[in-house]
Amino acid sequence: MTIRVLLVDDQPLLRTGFRMILEAESDLVVVGEAGDGQQALDQVRALQPDVVLMDIRMPRMDGVEATRRIAGPGRDGPAKVLVLTTFDLDEYVVEALRAGASGFLLKDVPAEELVQAIRVVADGAAMLAPSITRRLLDMYATKLPSGEEAPPQALGALTERELEVLKLVARGLSNAEIAAELFVSETTVKTHVGHVLTKLQLRDRVQAAVYAYESGLVRPGTL
């Protein structure tokens, strides 16, 4: 199955580099390019890509707003957004995740990791980089609940095991790692993750991780 990719970045040289990397793979095809968020929206409608590689800082419309319009709440289109950023502490990354991005990578990521991330996101999973996500959430700790507030009522719908799984997802663990931690099968973990996403009305693991911090279930600096 061929994965259709749209490249969105305001630097043509970077788009060219990404195109060369991706088109060397037999299962990836670059269907188009865009230099800003508005062009990205037009290209998504016209080309129907599976994955959008989205820069954050661009003219006319930034990557956060473009992500929200492509993959945000109420959007049921097939395109998944994988955000690219120059800095691992980019102030807009958390907002991009909240807007519906399925993950993010640094622009200097090794080629094989970029290719694998696109495949993971296209498959409906999320590309969650634990170390960078941890640093981002630590940086935004002052904006997160103090822990004294009552937890959201939605958490009451989760079983004890589902809460355990959500905490481990927030740590950035994969299904295999969670299975090893809880001494269960990967299939069981996948089922629990699916229940968590459904009950909390979340799109993917990235949003689940952000939710775990925002709800106070997991505190920055305590992992």
Can you give a write-up of this model?
The relative contact order is 0.11. Helices cover 46% and strands 12% of the residues. It has helices spanning 12-22, 37-47, 63-71, 93-98, 111-122, 130-139, 160-170, 175-182, 186-200, 205-214; strands spanning 3-8, 28-34, 51-55, 80-85, 104-106. The protein is of the alpha/beta class and 223 residues long. The chain contains ten helices and five strands, in the order E-H-E-H-E-H-E-H-E-H-H-H-H-H-H. Helix 4 links the parallel strand 4 (80-85) and strand 5. It has two domains: 3-138, Response regulator (Rossmann fold, 3-Layer(aba) Sandwich), CATH 3.40.50; 153-215, Arc Repressor Mutant, subunit A (Orthogonal Bundle), CATH 1.10.10.
Q: Which stretches are low in confidence, meaning pLDDT under 50 for 5 or more residues running?
A: none
Global outline? globular
How is the CATH topology of the largest domain named?
Rossmann fold
Instruction: Give the C-alpha Rg.
Output: 17 Å
The biggest sheet, with number of strands, parallel, antiparallel or mixed sense and barrel status, is:
5 strands, parallel
Mean pLDDT: 82
How many domains, in number, for the residues? Answer: 2
The largest beta-sheet arranges its strands as 2-1-3-4-5
Would you state the CATH class of the largest domain?
Answer: Alpha Beta
Strand content: 5-15%
The sequence of SSEs as H and E is: EHEHEHEHEHHHHHH
Broad structural category = alpha/beta
The CATH fourth-level homologous superfamily of the largest domain: Response regulator
Portion of residues within helices: 40-55%
Would you report the number of β strands? 5
CA-to-CA gap between the ends?
A: 38 Å
CATH architecture field of the largest domain: 3-Layer(aba) Sandwich
Number of helices: 10
